[in-house]
Amino acid sequence: MAKSLQGIEKIHLSVSRPESWLVADFSEIYDTLSWAVLGGDMPASSVVWLKVTSCDLSPGIDPAIYLKHRIENELKRSGAVGLLTSANLDDYADVQKSHGEFEARCIATVGLSNAVRIGDPPTAHHIGTINLLCVFSHPLSYESRLEALSLAAEARTAAVLEAAIPSTVSTFPATGTGTDCIVIASPQGGNDVKYAGKHTIPGSVIGSAVYEAVRTGTASWFLRNKK
Predict the structure, then answer these.
(1) What is the set of domains in the chain, with CATH numbers?
(2) d(CA 223, CA 215)
(3) Is the dihedral of CA 175, 178, 179, 183 positive or negative?
(4) How many whole angstroms from its chain centre is CA 176?
(5) pTM of the model
(6) 153-208, pLDDT tens digit by residue?
């Protein structure tokens, strides 16, 4: 795990590693936006990663039902945003960036055995994915959360391109994996931040936190998979 902490902490988030899980608990209900297996546009008190193998998700198993069942039975909670990964959860990266009153924190798990390039032809996917949660210190409008998702995807892509990983499909430099997922979270209420582009301080801290987290996670993946 890697940490980069700057400034006074404004994001109150606890991270734990029970058995096959990585759990990020907010101190209160946060607004989240994602395309997670369990999630979407919803309020949540936690985001969870479950480590799985290809055997766990054999044909005929609905991933959303499977994950919901395990969250409810093993973690004893409901309403969590849920992610599936084959990455080693002990290698999660945890990076925090701040500038003035604004702060972003990114927790990322990185697996790259399913690396592909945008525009590659569709194929059966393999295990290996980049899953990340980016938490912002201030309430974000819906439009700003959409913009933050875009910036997080761009930062993820920049970190993967920098690593020069060949696509498993085309052999050109990969831009991510075939099953990446991004979760953006921000507190509810108050004065929403309406802009989060690259010319803004919110956009800068969001982008830099995600970039460094994915870069760190990529380095850990290379070390663990060194031949």
Answers:
(1) 3-224 (3.60.70)
(2) 13
(3) positive
(4) 12
(5) 0.92
(6) 999 999 999 999 999 999 899 999 999 999 999 999 888 999 999 999 999 999 99
Beta-sheet pairing, 41-51 with 181-187: unpaired
Q: Nearest CA to 203 among 160, 140, 157?
A: 140
How confident is the model over 117-155, as pLDDT tens digits? Answer: 999 999 877 778 999 999 999 999 999 999 999 999 999
Cα-trace Rg, the chain: 17
Q: Cβ contacts of residue 65 below 8 Å, gap of 6+?
A: none
Nearest one of 182, 135, 184 to 26, comparing CA atoms: 135
Residue type for position 31: D
